[in-house]
Structures are given as structure tokens and as C-alpha cells.
Amino acid sequence: MRNSNDKKSQLLKLLRERSVFYGSFKLSSGATSNYYVDCRLTTFNPEGALLVGQVLYEMINEQALALGIKIDAVGGLTMGADPVALAIGIASVKHNSRDYYEIFSVRKSAKTHGQNKLIEGNFREGNHVVVIDDVITRGDSTLQAIQAVEQAGGTVEFVTVLVDRQEGGTEKIEAKGYKVLSAFSKNDLLNTDVATTKSG
């Protein structure tokens, strides 16, 4: 069985191979960038999902133990967070089949039929949760998920993200009082010459 450092190194290798693209890209914010990170090419890959779950579960579990808290559920804004949260949940079952993390997904807008849910899956009022994201850029999608959880009566203990693009999102979230743990930063993923060039 691979240790934590081996798993993290293998996941980084996979992200670099599958999820990092160089060129000229327009971001959702309207800015342009000389690289693009598409984590879903890794998180929707079976090997990638296995590694993502293991690496991020260990990060979350270590932080929860350090804080002396119990985490009930993990999830975030659809759809980037969905495969990441599910992978973490599966890893938590393997760690403890009787006390694992439930999984939820935050819609971008509430359903207009049925139960009119904004949060899908296994979330309950009073849950202590970790909000998940695949990539943090400006932090808006993560904050949207945090707001939905809190409005539904949950407590957000901290945030865990696969990749931090280092464009102010982490600072924005932490300024609101939520600790952000990231497995990797932009500098971990990119070629040195690209990592040191500011995206526009």
C-alpha cells in the first residue's frame, strides 16, 4: 500500500498529465490566462478519483483530529466538487465503515419542482461539514456553497480544495473566517516559466 507522500506524488503526476493545458484561454471571470486547469479530466478518471479520495480524505481527517471535531458530510457546488466529494466519501468508508462522511451537492439554483432543494444528497440540518472544490480561482463558487450550507442550518468547519490557482480566492474565503486546505497550488502543477507569469 502506498504511503501518503507516494499517493500525493502520483496524483500530482496525473494532474500534470491530464489536467494542465498551455496556450491562451478565456476564464469564466472574463480574464485571459496562458494556462488552464481542467481537474475533471483527473477527478472523473478512476485512478484519479481513487487518489483524490485518499489524499483529500487524509488531509480532512488530520485537520479534524487537530481541531477535535467530527465531520458529518462533505460537498460543494456542482459540478466541479461532485466527483471530489464522492471520492472522499468512498475513502472515508474504507477508513471506517461505521463512521464515514456523507456526501452532498449544492445546486447553482434550487429546483422548481419536487422538494425545491438547493442541496442534494445526504445533508441534514445541524451537520458539521467540509466544503469541497476542485479548483479555487476567485473563490466565488466555494462561497456560494458555504452560504447554501449555512442557510440550511449546517456548520462549515473548513474548506478543502484540490488545486489553488493562487489568484486571491483562498484569501477571500479565509477573510470570511474559513480555513482553506489545498492539496496543490498553481506552482506545483505548472512549468516554472508559466507559473511565474501572471495570468491576465
What does the model show?
The protein is of the alpha/beta class and 200 residues long. It has a domain at 53-187: Rossmann fold (3-Layer(aba) Sandwich), CATH 3.40.50.2020. It has 8 helices and 8 strands. The protein has a 6-stranded mixed sheet, with helices on both faces. Helix 1 crosses helix 3. The longest helix has 22 residues, at 46-67. It is globular. The mean pLDDT is 91.
How would you summarize the topology of this molecule?
Elements: H1 4-18, E1 20-26, E2 32-37, H2 40-43, H3 46-67, E3 73-77, H4 81-95, E4 102-106, E5 119-121, E6 128-136, H5 140-151, E7 155-164, H6 169-175, E8 180-185, H7 186-189, H8 192-195
Parallel strand pairs: 3-4, 3-6, 6-7, 7-8
Antiparallel strand pairs: 1-2, 4-5
Helix pairs in contact: 1-3, 3-4
Helix content: 40-55%
What is the beta-strand fraction? 25-35%
| Largest sheet geometry | 6 strands, mixed
Architecture per CATH nomenclature, i.e. the level-2 architecture of the domain at 53-187? 3-Layer(aba) Sandwich
How many DSSP H or I helices? Answer: 8
Give start-end ranges of low-pLDDT stretches.
none
Spatial arrangement of strands, main beta sheet: 5-4-3-6-7-8
> Helix and strand succession?
HEEHHEHEEEHEHEHH
- In oligomeric terms, what are we looking at? single chain
What is the 3D form? globular
- CA distance, first residue to last residue: 42 Å
Using only C-alpha atoms, the radius of gyration works out to 16 Å
Give the helix/strand class. alpha/beta
CATH fold node name of the domain at 53-187: Rossmann fold
Write down the CATH class of the domain at 53-187: Alpha Beta
Mean pLDDT: 91
Give me the count of strands.
8
